[in-house]
Amino acid sequence: MKYTNSEALYEEAQQHIVGGVNSPSRSYRAVGGGAPVAMERGEGAYFYDIDGNRYIDYLAAYGPIVTGHAHPHIAKAITNAAVTGTLFGTATTHEVTFAKMLKEAIPSMDKVRFNNSGTEAVMTTIRVARAYTGRTKVMKFAGCYHGHFDLVLVAAGSGPATLGTPDSAGVTKETAEEVITIPFNNPDAFKKAMEKWGHEVAAILIEPIVGNFGIVEPNQGFLEYVHKLAKEYGALTIHDEVITAFRFHYGAAHTLLGLTPDLTALGKVIGGGLPIGAYGGRKDIMETVAPLGPAYQAGTMAGNPASMQAGIACLEVLQTPGIYEEMDRLGQLLEDGINTLAQKHNVTISTNRVKGALAVYFTNEKVENYEQAENSDGEIFGRFFKLMLSQGVNLAPSRYEAWFLTIAHTEEDINTTLQAVDFAFAQL
Ligand code: PMP
Predict the structure, then answer these.
(1) Measured in angstroms, how far is the CA atom of residue 344 from the centroid of ligand 1?
(2) 141 lines ligand 1 (CB under 6 A)
């Protein structure tokens, strides 16, 4: 495969855009460097780069593209927004329609507010939780990523996973000290942390199924225990469902898990491929938000007609019967196939999967927390990533990201992918 145009573009991009990328995770630094492949066009489960190469896409734009690229129903909605006006800064019917749809799908949300990104959504839930409880501290789990605002750039998927140490320059020590980080799936560590700080904790930030160090499910009883202690200590539970909502079924992951958080943050999938964030939850908590209450949150682009119409259309597509079952079936085929090939080639891996989201770790242990994900072999992953790319399969350029299926993937795509894995494992 030739990447001549992508390489030339990267040279140029680096002169004008910091690092040549608009989000660090798009850089190939974590996979041994090189020019990131630049895409020109997406269609269903595939996209095409500027050199004319076609790829089966498992990146799904880091999660949002669950319907596949350029879905005609969503394209129609976006076109309608383009010709009828993309932004008014006023009330619209679309925002009310969409809010009602989200509430029906996620019954724990009595009230909703839209904004523009997952980062904004999570950031606001924390402000609201602090306003509601009058407390300052926030608890989170090591390796979970919740956006790029200061408070959550602490043990956020890379860098130091210790208490109160910022992951990013520019985040103050004082801010980092407001965050308590504990290992996922470790009830003892959680209990100890709550005994020490529980009465100061405004909120516990939870990815109910972790999507930021592969895919990691909570162990039986773990999140139930987190919720129980949160209630006892008067801390709110915030579910960050930016990746998980509408990824595994039509609704939030917490419904599947039988949990009811106080607040939920949304993003990614619900925008149908356009920028979006949203948060919602219990009525009395949400009424802390301006103009009803003292917690301020606003946005020129919040609830814009384009994102609203794309989101409505996306949810309409996701109501199609059988689609989540099919992603589960194909996910199983992919996972089983990869494990069989690993045995054939004597490659050490361990896999985690929830329906159409798969994680492949180059390690011999079952991954239940961030430390174990970190112990997987990044150098082998880097070579695997490049070999898969050479065979027309696009994964995220990081060993911490999941492989996402979409409703556009077919069994034939899975078989083609497994041929690529066969090729790649033979070379490792
Ligand atoms: N929360 C989670 C769980 C995420 O995975 C992400 C993004 N990967 C965010 C929040 C931040 O969302 P955004 O990039 O839209 O700001």
Answers:
(1) 36
(2) no
Quick one: which atom of ligand 1 is closest to the CA of 212?
Answer: 5
The answer to whether 145 is a known catalytic residue is yes
Domains and CATH numbers, the chain: 4-70+322-427 (3.90.1150.10), 72-318 (3.40.640.10)
Active-site residue, selected from the candidate residues 132, 145, 324, 370: 145
Rg (CA), the chain: 21
**Pair of tokens at residue 112:** 């909703």
Q: Is the ipTM of this complex over 0.95?
A: yes
Q: What CA–CA distance (Å, rounded) separates 263 from 110?
A: 10
Of the residues 49, 240, 328, 413, which is catalytic? 240
Pair of tokens at residue 228? 């129980």
Which DSSP helix (H) or strand (E) runs through 394? strand 393-394
Query: Closest ligand 1 atom, CA of 23?
Result: 14
Ligand 1 pocket test, pick from 66, 122, 123 with the greatest ligand atom count within 8 Å of Cβ, gives 122
pLDDT tens for the 428 residues of the chain, in order:
899 999 999 999 999 999 999 999 999 999 999 999 999 999 999 999 999 999 999 999 999 999 999 999 999 999 999 999 999 999 999 999 999 999 999 999 999 999 999 999 999 999 999 999 999 999 999 999 999 999 988 765 433 333 445 778 888 888 988 999 999 999 999 999 999 999 999 999 999 999 999 999 999 999 999 999 999 999 999 999 999 999 999 999 999 999 999 999 999 999 999 999 999 999 999 999 999 999 999 999 999 999 999 999 999 999 999 999 999 999 999 999 999 999 999 999 999 999 999 999 999 999 999 999 999 999 999 999 999 999 999 999 999 999 999 999 999 999 999 999 999 999 99
Residue 233 in tokens: 């200590």
- Our answer on whether the CB atom of 207 is closer than 6 Å to any ligand 1 atom is yes
Contact assessment for residue 46 and residue 56, using Cβ atoms and an 8 Å cutoff? yes
In 3D, which of 328, 274, 269 has the Cα closest to residue 301?
Answer: 274
